[in-house]
Specification:
Elements: E1 8-13, E2 15-18, H1 25-34, E3 40-42, E4 54-55, E5 59-60, H2 65-77, H3 84-88, E6 91-93, E7 98-101, E8 106-109, H4 116-141, E9 146-149, E10 162-169, H5 174-187, H6 189-192, E11 196-197, E12 210-211, E13 221-224, E14 232-235, E15 247-252, H7 261-279, H8 292-300, E16 309-310, E17 316-317, H9 319-334, H10 339-357, H11 367-382, H12 389-398, H13 407-413, H14 423-431, H15 439-448, E18 453-457, E19 460-463, E20 468-470, H16 477-486
Parallel strand pairs: 13-14
Antiparallel strand pairs: 1-8, 1-10, 2-9, 3-6, 4-5, 6-7, 7-8, 10-15, 11-12, 16-17, 18-19, 19-20
Length: about 500
């Protein structure tokens, strides 16, 4: 099996509200993270190792929109009775994940994973951890006011992200990846979109009904290093979290937060296979969309996948045709290499076929289709339309993690949506890091080196005695095994 993409990861910013009193969202986010009872390394994240201003196109930017927001937050934060570190509340958990307050959102970053199924399990583990923190926070308050949502919009014009990450080789020019990826990414919302009632475009026509995706309204350009303004189809931040001479980290910010683990698996799995094809220089497609940004919005507002997109050569193509072409290329080259990849190829094909011929069959596993079915039934029974505020509130409740309020949670409990993993498997991922990636080393350090860690990061761990454990070159199971065998004397806990 090809190792073009050895590591995968997901970062999810959760929406949070407290509906029983006026509240400070920064404090609520901070308090939620503080309620995490898992063994963790607290407050020692190595921010000095972050490199957010280097662009994959070969230059450094002087400032980012997030810098300005950070300055504004610092002014507000100076009035709060907490230090910067207390407010960030950074935790590296025993399963190798990072959980912290990203100013106004609790954010959960999965540990690095070596397989798609492993990653989806750890994404679900993050959901359960955040849900438990909300339950404990409400117990402290003796209320049910704190609610947490796995979505990407507050329906008032603000968007927060779910980022899928892939470690890819640096030997190929960045432009090579862009050319091969853009048509695929623009159209993968056909199955990866989480669905959204109405629209939030600041410019252009409003939309009535259900869109495929929540982030599409907020995509403004093809390439950009920014994540908060000028949001791009492909983010150009060059921060590999690995040996920079060998690797890039593809940091995609255009995706939705999926409640359906099937949709997450298909989103990440299909992307990994396309990246593998590009990395092996075996992708011969040349779609070349004339305006991908316009296209991503048009696709989101058409549930059939047949809206016409203009190509650079003057011809037209549909989103379904683009996805089918990528699937055919992947199937021809990568099928038969492992069971996981064959599952992704099979389910990708099944989903595209059903979207073309029997879209109603998607309503047990694709988020936007689940919503379409659920909301249509509700509107028919209550005699209301898509314009009714009731429907938008249901849209939000679909993403509520509260098992007693969340609509997806209710469907899950009733066995009406596709289930991929048992609760035992998810519970294991809550406490155990993947055994075949460097996350295992980080998890071991957290569980066995209490009080001896000076700072910790994706790329390494510095101890209070001055020793440094470099993880930047640990990208395979063989690397992990070698480190475990070679460093036993230096670090007794390994």
């Amino acid at each position: 099996m090809s190792a073009i993409v050895p590591l995968l990861g997901l970062e999810t910013e959760y929406g949070i509200i407290r509906d029983d009193v006026d509240y400070d969202v920064v404090e609520e986010s901070m308090q939620l993270v503080h309620r995490c009872g898992l063994k963790s390394e607290f407050g020692n994240w190595a921010y000095s190792r972050e490199r957010t201003h280097l662009d994959m196109r070969g230059f450094n930017v002087d400032s980012l929109a997030q810098d300005e927001e950070e300055d504004a937050f610092c002014i507000k934060d100076s009035k709060r009775p907490y230090t910067y570190w207390e407010m960030k509340s950074d935790r590296v958990l025993e399963n190798g994940a990072r959980f912290y307050n990203d100013h106004t959102h609790p954010e959960y970053s999965t540990p690095e994973c070596g397989s798609v199924f492993q990653l989806v399990t750890h994404d679900l583990a993050g959901e359960r951890i955040v849900t438990e923190c909300a339950r404990l926070r409400n117990n402290d308050l003796d209320s049910h006011g704190v609610q947490v949502f796995k979505n990407n919009t507050d329906y008032s014009g603000h968007s927060y992200g779910t980022h899928d990450n892939y470690l890819i080789p640096r030997r190929l020019p960045f432009e090579f990846w862009v050319e091969g990826l853009v048509p695929f990414l623009v159209t993968r919302q056909l199955y990866a979109g989480a669905g959204k009632v109405g629209s939030e475009q600041r410019r252009g026509e409003s939309f009535r009904g259900l869109q495929l995706a929540q982030r599409s309204d907020f995509i403004e350009t093809v390439l950009s290093i920014e994540t908060m303004t000028q949001r791009p189809i492909i983010n150009t931040r060059d921060e590999p979290h690995a040996t920079p001479e060998k690797y890039r980290r593809l940091h995609l910010i255009l995706g939705d937060a999926n409640m359906s683990p099937y949709a997450t698996a298909l989103k990440v799995g299909s992307t990994r296979l396309v990246l593998t094809l590009i990395g092996e220089e075996k992708l011969s497609l040349s779609v070349g969309l004339e305006d991908p940004v316009v296209g991503i919005k048009k696709i989101s507002r058409d549930q059939t996948g047949t809206v016409l997109l203009k190509r650079k050569n003057g011809s037209t193509v549909t989103p379904l045709e683009i996805q089918e072409a990528y699937l055919e290329a992947v199937e021809k080259t990568l099928s038969g290499q492992c069971k996981e990849w064959d599952w992704i190829i099979r389910e990708w094909g099944r989903t595209l076929s059903e979207l073309r011929h029997h879209p109603e069959k998607l309503a047990d596993r694709i988020d936007w289709a689940i919503k379409q079915n659920l909301f249509t039934q509700f509107m028919e029974s209550e005699k209301v339309s898509w314009d009714d505020p009731w429907i938008k509130s249901l849209d939000l409740e679909y993403h509520n993690l509260d098992p007693d309020r969340g609509l997806y949670r209710g469907l899950e409990q009733n066995g009406e949506v596709f289930s991929m993993f048992s609760e035992d498997e998810v519970a294991c991922a809550i406490q155990q890091a993947p055994e075949d990636t460097r996350a295992l080393i980080r998890g071991l350090a957290v569980t066995r080196s209490e009080g001896t860690i000076k700072n910790i990061h994706w790329t390494g761990i510095e101890f209070t005695d001055g020793e440094f454990l470099d993880l930047s070159e640990i990208v395979s199971s063989a690397d992990v095994e070698h480190l475990l065998n070679s460093e036993k004397e230096r670090f007794k806990w390994l």
